[in-house]
Amino acid sequence: MSKILYIEDEITKNIATIKTFFKTLMKGNEKVLKRLTEIEENNALNNADNIIDACKEISKLEICYSFPEAIKKITNESHKYELFIIDRNLYSRKYHAEIPNILEILKESGIGDAQSIVDGHMEREGDILAFLLFIKNHDNLCKIFFLTAHPYIPEGIHKLDHFIDTKQFSIERVIIKGSEAEGKIIKAINDSESMNIENQYLLQCSILRFELGEEMVDKFIDMIRYHSSDKRSEFLFLLRNLCENILHSLAFGMGEYNADYWNSEKTQLLKIMQFINGRYYQGKVVEGSGLPAYNLKKNISYNSIIRNALASIYDITSECGVHSLSKGVNISNANIANISIYTMQSLLAQICEVIVWYDKAMEIIQ
User: Whole-angstrom distance between the N-terminal and C-terminal Cα of the chain?
Assistant: First the structure.
């Protein structure tokens, strides 16, 4: 899932800014807000590492507070981020000892006179980061907000005003700290693609976060993104992965470790269709066989709608060549010839229905 990268060297002076900018990302996680407030009000606790540690709970946010660290992230991981919020002046954390490494990274990125660039951009290190992002992908310039104490845009070797003059970067994205214009950053955060998806599927994301963790929320959001962009193979792969994780979570919660719906050779894996449909004898569910039998004992509201949804997801993804939780599955080999846009819509509706039921079932099981 795409993230937001916030680069600020004077992070200990900007706890209030973090709480303001990323308030939406903290929704439902009062622990982060409480911890940041504790740090803000206690000078003994107010250091960069404590702030970073507190914000680790916000999965969509990464913070770095030094120019060398920012260069490494942008050079190696720029594809991970959908928004960059950069303080232009990153000089308060001195980096002289790191300059040889910085020069090496700049040269490897194709920047010729690296020494002159570093010398000419002290107290404007953010401009170098912008140029690196531009080299990586020209579209990155549309993802940047600069924070500055001064509205003036000074010239430089790889100057920001060139990007402005050529309309590749908007002056509207240079934000004076503490000004009303900071609202543009908050709006951009709230309007980001992943935030929009989570807000649209808030119930499903909340359930997955509570039951299966942040990684599965990320996969769900990616699945929705693939659905929206009609990337059918990728959608089916994540759909199958999500479905199997839900089923295994249910099975482990039920605690029937000797049941015959477990794979005898791979004891941590289910016989999925047997678990979904159970076993029948003379029209009756055989005791101890999967979700139908467990529903007779505990009434987890496992009805035909949920059973058919799970079976449909499993059957269709199997027919398309998507199998198991293995990361080694080759998505490109999925056979999607028979998957129409209507099938895609149906599958999405089914997994959303399954997730809501899964939450209620887990409350009873646990």
Answer: 30
Asked whether 57 and 92 are in contact (CB, 8 A), the reply is no
The residue among 328, 341, 82, 309 whose CA lies nearest residue 235 is 341
Strand intervals (E) in 177-275: none
Pairwise CA distance, residues 227 & 218, whole Å: 14
Exposed/middle/buried for residue 30 (C-beta within 10 Å: 0-12, 13-18, 19+): exposed
CA of 17: how far to CAs of 8, 66, 331, in Å? Answer: 11, 17, 42
Strand partners, 284: 281
The answer to pTM > 0.70 is no
Copy the structure tokens of residue 303: 């009805």
63 within 8 A of 11, measured Cβ to Cβ? yes
CA distance 92 to 8: 10
196 alpha carbon, distance to own chain's centre: 12
Spatial neighbors of 300 by CB under 8 A, at least 6 apart, are: 291, 294, 360, 361, 364, 365
63 beta partners: 6
Answer yes or no: are the C-beta atoms of 242 and 317 closer than 8 Å: no
Contacts of 264 (CB under 8 A, 6+ apart): none
Q: What residues are paired with 61 via a beta bridge? A: 4
Residue 260: how many other CB atoms lie within 10 Å: 14
> Tokens 């055989």 map to which residue?
286
How many residues can be counted in the chain?
366
Whole-angstrom distance, CA of residue 231 vs CA of residue 234: 6
Do 313 and 350 contact (CB within 8 A), yes or no? yes
pLDDT digits (tens, 9 = 90+) for 92-121: 989 999 999 999 999 998 887 888 888 888
User: Rounded to the nearest 5°, which phi and psi values hold at 171?
Assistant: -60, -20
* Encoded tokens for 307: 């059973």
Q: Where are the alpha helices (DSSP H) in the chain?
A: 15-21, 30-41, 48-55, 67-77, 99-108, 114-120, 125-136, 160-165, 182-190, 193-200, 202-212, 214-228, 232-254, 272-277, 290-298, 304-319, 341-365
Chain-centroid distance, C-alpha 112: 35
Model confidence pLDDT, tens digit, residues 24-60? 888 767 889 999 999 999 999 999 999 999 999 888 8
